[in-house]
Each structure stands twice: as C-alpha cells, then as structure tokens.
Amino acid sequence: MPDVKSAPMLVSEFTGLEARRCGQPLELSAQQRERVRRGFEVLVREGLAFDGVAVEGVEPVRVRLTVSGPGDCALVASLHDARPLHRRLLSPRSFEEISELAQKLHEAVATVLSGVQMLPIILAARSVVLGAVADELDLVPMVTDGRYVMRVPHNIFVILRSSPQAQAAAEDLKHLFEQDDSTITFVRGKGTTQGEGATVMELPAHLWERLAEAQPASIFESVQQVEDPLESLVTRIPREDLSRTAPSDVGPQERGRRTDERIPPPGHLL
Predict the structure, then answer these.
(1) Beta 128-131 vs 224-226: how paired, if at all?
(2) How many CB atoms lie within 10 A of CB 35?
(3) What is the pLDDT at residue 133?
(4) Which has fewest Cβ within 10 Å: 50, 136, 186, 196?
(5) Spatial separation of the C-alpha atoms in residues 93 and 8, rounded to whole Å
(6) pTM
(7) What is the DSSP string of 166-234?
(8) C-alpha to C-alpha distance for 201 and 199, rounded to whole angstroms
(9) 3-state class of 225 per DSSP?
(10) What are the beta bridge partners of residue 80?
(11) Could you tell me where the DSSP H helices lie in 54-94?
C-alpha cells in the first residue's frame, strides 16, 4: 500500500465516541483504543472496496483515533490520493469525483456503525430474521423476536461472510464492549455540511460475558435469511369472512313521499 502519510487527503469522515457508566466518563485503555481504531479502519476499508473504491491502490484509507476528553474519543476516517505527483498534477481530482468519494466514505462509516449497533441486538434477541431483497438504499428489513422491525445495511452481512480481513477486524472492534453495563454515544457528521447526528447505545448488563467467547462474524452468519421477513407480521383476513353491509341497510328505513317536508340545504343560499 502507498505511504498514506505522504499522500494528500481527499475526504474525511468524523465519528465521536462518548463512553459513560452511571453518568461518569469511562476511559478506554490504550490497548482498547488501538484495537478499536484498527478494527474500524479495516472495516471501513472493506466497505469502500465492496463499493468499488481502489482502497489498496491510489486511494488508501487511514483512521486516526484521538482522545478529546475524559471518556471521549474521536475517530477520523480519511481517503488519500496516493497517485504519483505527476499524475496528480496532470489529472487533478474534479469536484464531482471528490463528492462521490465523500459520499462513499460516509456510507462505509455508516455501515460499520450500523454493524456495531446491530451486534448486541442480534446477540440479545431470541430470534432474528433478515430479508433477502435489498431496496434502492441497500437496506433490508430485520425482524427480532417476531415483533421489532428495523432496516439495516445488507452490506455488513455480505462483507463479514466473504472477507477474512473483515472478520478479524470485527474481532478487534468488539472490544468496544468490554466496558459492561455502560452507555456509548456515537456522534457523526461533526463539522461537516451533512449535519450532526447522535445515536445513544445502551449496553445491557453481562453483554461482554456473552460476547467475549463469541465471534461477531459467526453471530451475523447465524441470522436466518428469508425472502419476506414481514410476512408473519401482516394480518390477512379472507374477503369472504369480512362482515358486509347489505344495500338495504344503508339509507332511510322507507322511501320518502312528496308530501314530506323538504330538508333545507346546508349553509346560506347564494
């Protein structure tokens, strides 16, 4: 891979992590921070490669993790232009190319964060069913416990099933949950034109005990995939069983007569 440090940055994506336990800042150790940074970087790279970006060639990915305060970290994923200098001068990146790369980086980071948030949900659920047909946003419905429905990225399941590098990265990233019974807030889009957003994630007690011996890839692979996971949630009543109102039951009991008093029209007459 080209040297990222010597290549100019094209686009970047900010993600903040705020860890709390009982309202107090929860600091990650240096080893935990490095494993989270490394796992996040590899998964973002795999997501971009899945989307057709040449992340091993002229556009390598780098993720920096910095501590911004007690219990707070900042993850900055960036794409760099590692082409030779003469190529960068002769063929500079257009605004459209940079905008497209920014959007793809944004989507790759969103996919990774969605996978992180799905992991404890899948692990804690008694049953999980995933749809097989993705929509135009590459989202599929996921039904947990036969009643809760959410739309999740289909990419994360495909990547984890097909990429050994992504599977190893998920093992690193799962150490974000070593702090049991706490709250993690993901802050996205800080300082960008796309607007800020925050997602608060409540970690159930004893989650790490269940996750420590489990592999995230196997957890995702265990999800049952069906063509229509929403079918069991839709109530269908045969048409012949519906109670119908006979035409004779509608309107007055008997026909009117010419001698009956006329009912005035509503409102004022013009």
Answers:
(1) parallel
(2) 20
(3) 85
(4) 136
(5) 12
(6) 0.79
(7) HHHHHHHHGGGG-S-S-EEEEEE-TTSTT--EEEEEEPPTTHHHHHHTS-HHHHHHTSEEES-TTGGGS
(8) 6
(9) strand
(10) 9
(11) 85-90
